[in-house]
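Hi C.,

You asked whether I'd gotten around to modeling the 260-residue construct. I have! Everything is below, sequence then structure, no commentary in between.
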Amino acid sequence: MKKWMDTYAGVTGFMHREHVNVAVAALEGTLPLMVGVLASEKTLSGATNSKPNRYPKREDIAGIFPEKSPRTLNLIHLGGIPVRTHLGAFMHIAESYGGENFQGFQLNVHLPDPGVLREWKARRQRSGQDACIVLQCRESVIEQGGRKPRAVVDLLAPYANVVDHILVDGSGGEGVPLDVDFCSDVLAEVARRRWKVGMGLAGGLTAETLETWLSKLALYFDFSIDAEGGLRDADDHLSMPAMLDYLGVARTLLGERVAA
């Protein structure tokens, strides 16, 4: 099974290929850019999401992803799906709109059936296609674990040999600040268990908060990052200045560590 465990800097909510190209150039080859394109049950059904400046039309998804490269990871971020009954079906629907440069999913759903994920990965791999899965450890999972790091990691254990990354994200794109102490304890618990899975952190990340919250954490742990809500302007468009500032800090904070 091919694993996608490289540390990446993610930007979620791309609507235009041109913005992706700017982001790739900003990282200067130090880190792969996770290109996050949002999709939901509503948009995959042809309707408009309540956040139309973050969720492209389903027909536009393929055109946003750049050509496959070691410098990018092209993921559809899939949420708003009835997870226990229809996730597999919507993964197939989303995949059909991903185009030839689509490489996998970030699943923004609550504790999906690991068997559905294995089946999807196996089918893709049999046909020689990329099959990366990032699982969001969302607020509902954190709450189910009583906000106790060990209990939360216990809930994630069934996915340790299935997914490629786990993203600790109690914000869900709403800019809610991440809990640095909680994230540190989760990273330490995963490291203790020696899982072969990449870890990521998200929640209110901007250039300023990335440096303030995570600079010390980066001394001890390897992790990816993803930003969405903190990079939007007043009209909820992706802000180029905010994105470039964030990626500049990511390049220094994480990129230099990766290169070392």
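If it helps when you're writing up: The CA atoms of residues 254 and 260 lie 10 Å apart.

Thanks,
B.
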